[in-house]
Structure formats: C-alpha cells, structure tokens
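Q: I'm writing up a methods section and want to include an example of the input and output format. Could you take the sequence below and give the corresponding predicted structure tokens, formatted cleanly so I can copy it straight into the document?
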Amino acid sequence: MDIADVTELRSYTTEDLASIRQLLIDVHADAFADQMDDEFHRRFPWFVDQWGGREGFACVVGYDTDEPMGYAYGAPSAAGREWWRPFMAEPADPSTFSLSELMVRPRWRKQGVSEVLHKALLEGRPEAMVALSVDTAHPKVQGLYESWGYRKVGESRPFADSPLYAVMVADLPLTTGTAGS
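A: Here is the clean output for your methods example:
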C-alpha cells in the first residue's frame, strides 16, 4: 500500500481542540487498548487538555478516507522551562518544540503513517530543536526516532505512575529520516 494514496492530513490548533478532543482520546484508546486499565493511560484526556491549551499547540491527524489513522501533536516549550534542560548543556538556540504524542492505530501501523505524521507536524517549525520522550520498554520505537535524527540525552519518569522515558532531542530542521527527504 502506498500511504500517500490513502492519507489525508488535516492540521489543527488550540482553537480546534473542542472539535478534535474526543477524536484524540478515541485514537489513544484504540492505540493503547491493552493498557487502558492502567491509571496513567486513563488520565490521557487530562494530557490532551493540558497540551491542547498551550500557546502554539499544533496537531496533524492522518485520515484514510474519513477514518483517523493516527496523529501527532505538540507545542513550543516555554523559554527557560524546556524539560530537556537537566540532561544536556545549553545549546546556542534553546527554542524547542515538544512533540508530545505520535500515535498510530493498530490497523495502520508499519505502513509509514508515523513518518508522514511526524514530517507534517515538524515541517517549517521555527524552533531550533525538537524534544520528545519514548517509553524505554520500546527500544524499536526509540530506534525509529534515532533513524529520524534524534539522540537520547537522558531518562525521566515525569509522574510517579508513568513509564521510564528516554528523553530524546533533534535539531530542526531534521536532516535525516523523513524530514530530510
């Protein structure tokens, strides 16, 4: 299957959150169906509201006809409050876009959807770098991000009940992986 033939990308901002909030929650519930009894995953609506309310919130949803395949979203970090700071030296330009979520529903995994969403979200971003976290229990996902130009700078557990995450950063614009092609 050629993902370009079946994907429609729609972009959203903070102003659109009310209209896409339930879609984001529903895709998450499908993507993490086997983990929805976990309190951390049941709090996902709170995370949607927190991220969606941030200034500069950006979201890209990929559709197969009218069916949401997955999405990517994030927001610029507040200057001086970037969450990667404990793990690395201050770069010349610390402006950061925090990629909070990149998820694809099971039916569309391993078809290039995550690459399309990732590229669409970060294309043209004005920040100097992008930061994200990846559950350390998923080394293949970490490897995928590394193939896109990210590097691991540390590990963090932001909430007592959250997984241990690899903190990863990349310079923008990305020059390897999908964003460089």
